[in-house]
Amino acid sequence: MTGPLPAPGLTGLFFGTVPPGVYRLPPTDTAARVMSLAAEADWRASTLRLGGVTDKAAFLDRCATDLDFPEWFGRNWDALADCLTDLSWWREEGKARGYLLLTEGWTDFRKAAPHDARTAEEILGDAVGHWADGESPLAVLLG
Check: CATH 2.60.120.380 for 33-133? Predict the structure, then answer.
């Protein structure tokens, strides 16, 4: 389901030679570098910090806070899918070339709550697929 980011890596992702997807963040890349490259490529990027998150409720709470989801976010899997397939809450003035969701602490979350992590990963993958053919794709890096 989730694989490594293919060559040429982040640059390829941001400039369209690597298709949008749900990828593992290369261990040599840092969140700061990813965010900097995303900004340079005119991608909107947000970080989902999963440190200490060990279950579905905490994951959804963290999504609501870190991603600044709209008030209508119902803190359930369906509402997560809705937010990720309607990015109006994330759009700002002007057009972005793409959207990037970077997670930090994914491995620990997956170890603590494997079933919840699989469900979240499926929803992330579906959202990426939803935006794949649009002008502004969505990509996810699991770090």
Answer: no
Domain ranges, ordered by start, for the chain: 33-133
Task: Report whether 100 contacts 43 (CB < 8 A).
Answer: yes
Pick the closest to residue 59 from 17, 21, 98, 112 (CA basis).
Answer: 112
- Measured on CA atoms in the order 9, 127, 137, 43, is the torsion positive or negative? negative
* pLDDT tens-digit map of 19-61: 999 999 998 899 999 999 999 999 999 999 999 999 999 999 9
What CA–CA distance (Å, rounded) separates 6 from 39?
20
Q: By the 8 A CB rule, do 131 and 138 touch?
A: yes
Q: How many CB atoms lie within 10 A of CB 115?
A: 10
Instruction: Return the structure tokens found at 98.
Output: 């793409």
- Picking from 105, 133, 132, 135, the residue whose alpha carbon sits closest to that of residue 120 is 105
Contacts of 71 (CB under 8 A, 6+ apart): none
pTM for the complete prediction? 0.95
